[in-house]
Amino acid sequence: MLDARTISLVRTGFKSVVASPDVPARLSRSFYAHLFAEYPDFRSLFPASMDSLREHFVLALGYVFEHLDDTDRVEPFLEQLGRDHRKHGISGAHFRAGSSALISAFRTFAGTEMWTDEVETAWHDALTVVSNAMAAAADNDELPPYWSATVVEHQRLLDDLAVVRLKTDGEIPYFPGQYVSVQIPQRPKLWRYLSPAIPSNPYGEIEFHVRRVSGGWVSPAMVTETRVGDRWSISPPLGGMYVDRAIHEDVLMIAGGTGLAPLRAQVMEMAQRSNNPRVHLFVSGTYPCDLYDLDTLWQLSLSNPWLTVVPVTEELEDPWWYSGPARELPWGMHHRLHGAVGKVVTRFGSWADRQIQICGSPSMVRTTLYALRKVGTPMEHIQHDPF
């Protein structure tokens, strides 16, 4: 355990350094430069383009330092990070080696006035705890670093959205609501996080809903270049969104775009049970055409009266460039509501008596959290993934 003084020095120092908008990216680049200079053989473990890795690196650091005094939250997060990095060929020894590179990078940006002997000792102590937790998880994990899977269907629902179905070489033991890291043959060594849209099953079937990110390296290839027969790699599961049945509370789920996938998987798993809490699922998109899976959700709700599906769009009509047919709501479904989904949801109150899950783009999650906080929703009732 770290003492309060050590945690305060590390947390305060990190926040002060990354306060400037351009520093997080520079800090990340400096870390990897120090790491590869000290251990040149490490470079071959990473892709040529490291923009996404650098971004996630700083986000992860911020999350860890913010919760250093909350072991129940930070330890599982570090253990998941340690296991997840095995897909790159990284072992526990690599994590311990990386601590000195991070200290060297941080010292460069902190400056001599901030970087005292006490601060350096605090960083050494904190990073020892962090790297040991990740190293132990990586070295003791019994699951393979990743599974191979074959694309059996690629369905282009929109110009920028596809449903990809695969058959894995072995059953992947994930829980509905978790996410996995995926590598495709068109972009070797570039891994991207996706949430399975169906529960795990013994037949190795898995489904992903992929939205093309403008300027992205991987998602455009997933949407436009994927072919039946392609071989994908899928890492062990991460994350922990779930419905807690022990507390006997009903559930509010808020989905933005393909953020529907992990919520959909949970609802499908619940449909296999005889007794469930009530679930209100708000499914949102910018345009009506973005509500791509309403028919499936409507069929689920017809045979599961505990499930209510509410469609939401920010715009009343499809964009001028959309050439597909107008998407009609299934007969009997709740009428479509309009506006930003956070504002729409909070028209019905604070939902303070519900378990709440939010999944979508980072901006959608942030604005929805803000809307809920504004009406008094207890933040401890809300689940969303750290990134």
Describe this structure in words.
The protein has 387 residues and is of the alpha/beta class. The chain has eleven helices and twelve strands. The strands form two sheets. The protein has a six-stranded antiparallel β-sheet. A six-stranded parallel β-sheet has the order 10-9-8-7-11-12, with helices on both faces. A hairpin with a 2-residue loop joins strand 1 (147-158) and strand 2. Helix 1 (4-17) crosses helix 5 (92-114) and helix 4 packs across helix 6. Keywords: 2Fe-2S, Heme, Iron, Iron-sulfur, Metal-binding, NAD, NADP, Oxygen transport, Transport. Residues 1-139 form the Globin domain.
Q: State which percent range the strand residues make up.
A: 15-25%
Strand order, sheet with most strands: 4-3-6-1-2-5
Runs with pLDDT <50, length 5+?
A: none
The total of helices stands at: 11
| Main sheet record | 6 strands, antiparallel
Overall mean confidence score, pLDDT: 92
Catalytic activity: 2 nitric oxide + NADPH + 2 O2 = 2 nitrate + NADP(+) + H(+); 2 nitric oxide + NADH + 2 O2 = 2 nitrate + NAD(+) + H(+)
Pfam family, one: FAD_binding_6
InterPro entries: Cbr1-like_FAD-bd_dom, FAD-bd_FR_type, Flavoprot_Pyr_Nucl_cyt_Rdtase, FNR_nucleotide-bd, Globin, Globin-like_sf, Globin/Proto, MRET
EC number: 1.14.12.17
